[in-house]
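Quick one - inputs below.
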Amino acid sequence: MTFSEYLAARDFLTNIGQPVITYILLVSILQVLFSIVYFLKRKDNYYRYLIKSVYISTSLYVLGFLFLIWFHLQIYNTVLIEYPEFLRQAIPVESSRLIIPMWIESEKLYFWSMAASVFVLTVQRRKELVSFLGIVLSVFSAIVFFLSNPFKEPLPIVHNEITMWYSALSSGDGRIFEMAGNLFGRITFYYNSTYMWTHPPMLFIAYASLIITAAACVYMLIRRDPMYDEIAYRYAKAGYILLTLGMLIGYPWAIEAWKDSAWWWDPKISGSIMMWVLYTAYLHAHIYVGRGKMWNATAYLGIICFASLLFTYLLTYIVPGIHSVVQP
Amino acid sequence: MKYLKNYDYGLIILTTLVLFSIGLVCVYGIAYYNYLTVNPQWQHTLLYVQYINNMNSYLYPFLVLLLISLGLCIPKRLFEQDILVKFWALALGITVILTFLSGIETGLGFIVAIMIVIQSVVFILTINKSKKIRFEKEGYIMRLGSVLLHLGVVILIFNFVTFRENPFHILIFWIGTLLVMGGNIFSFYPGKTNSLLQLK
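Output:
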C-alpha cells in the first residue's frame, strides 16, 4: 500500500462521488418544485412526489456517505506516516496511520444535510411542515454542491498534509522535523482523537434535529396549532441532549489538545455557549407554554435559537479564532 | 396555590431572561474578539488576559443571578417561601461583600457552594420520595431528573470557577456531565426511563 494508491483512491472517489452529488442537486430541484406546487394546489399527488424525492435524495446522501467511508478506509490503509530514525527523540511512536472522521472540512455540511434529510423523513405525516422542510433541504443541498462538495476535491487540508509529508520525505527537506511534529500533533489530538469522533457528530445530529424544531416553530406562529409546538418541543429535547453532551465533550478535548493555546472565549466557543443558553431558555420557557401568549414567545424563541445555531456554525468561516478557517 | 403558580412562572421568566442575557454577553465577546484581531498578535499580549478577565467578569453576575433563581426555584416547600427569599437575599448580600473583599470568583464560589449543599439535600429528599419538596412537573422520574440536572449544572459551575487548577478537575467535570445528562434524559423522557428502569 503506497502513496500512489492513496492518490488513485482519491481520484476514484471523485469519479464515483461527483455523479451522486449531481443527482442530489437535481432531485433537490424537483423537491423545491413539488413543495411549491403542493403549497399552491394542496393535492396529495404532489405531496407523494415530494416524499419520494426526499427518500431518493436521502438514499443518495447515504450512498455518497458510504463512498466517503470507503475513501477514509483507503486513507487508513494506504497512508503510513513513518517517522525517520532521527525524529524518534521528538516523536514517541515509530509511525502513524490516519483515522479520519467523516465530518471534517467539506464533509461536515454534507453530514449535517444527510442527518437533516433523515430527520425530515421522521415527520413525513405533517404535510405542510415537510413541504417547507423540502425547500430548506434543497437549499442545503445546493450549498453542499456549490460551496462544500466533498467529492470535488476530497479533504483538501488532509491531502495537502499527506502530499507535503511525502514530498519532504523524498526530497530530504530540512523542514521535516517541524512537519513531523505538526503532523503527529494533528493525528493524535485531532484526526484520531476519540473526541473528534464524538464531539462533532453529536453536534451535527443535534443541529439536524433542531432544524425540525425551527420549522415547527415557524408553523406554530402561522397556524397556531399546538401540534406544531409539540413537534418543535419533541425535536428540541432530542437535539438539546446531543447538543449538551457534544459541547461538554469539547471541554476536556480543548484542555488536552490546546494546552498552550488561547481558546477560552474564542468566538466559536462564545457562539456555542450563546446557542446553548438560548436553547436552555427555550426549554425553560416551554414549561409554561399553555399560559397566555407563552406559546407565541416560545415559538419566537425557537426561531431565534436556530438563528443563533446558524450564526455559530458560520462563525468558523467569518470570524478569526482557534476554530476558524479564516486568519486575522 | 395560585400564588405559588405565579411565583413559579415569575422564576421561569427570570431564568429565561438571565439565560438570554448570557447569550448577549457572548455576542459582545464575539464582536470584541473580532475587533481585537485587528492586531494578529494580540493573543500573545496582555490584551488577551484582559479580554478573558473582562468576559469572565461580565458573565459572573449573570451566573450569580442564575444560581439564585435556581436556588429560589428548586427547594420550594423545603423552606417557607418568605424564608427562602430572605435566605437568598442574605446569600446575595454576602456574595456582594465577598466580591468586594476578594473578587468575583470568591463570591461566586461561595454562592455555588451553598447551591451544592441545597441541591444535595433536595437530591436526598427526592430519592427518599419526601413530600416536603414540590416540583412544577409531577412524577418521580421527572423530579429526579430535575434534581440531577440542577445538581450537575451547579457542580460544573463550581468546578469551573474554583477547581480549574485542581488535579480532580476533569474527574469532577465528568461527574457533573454524567449528572446533567442523566438529568436531561430523566426529565425529558420520564415515561421511557420509567419503563426501562421498571420503577413505579
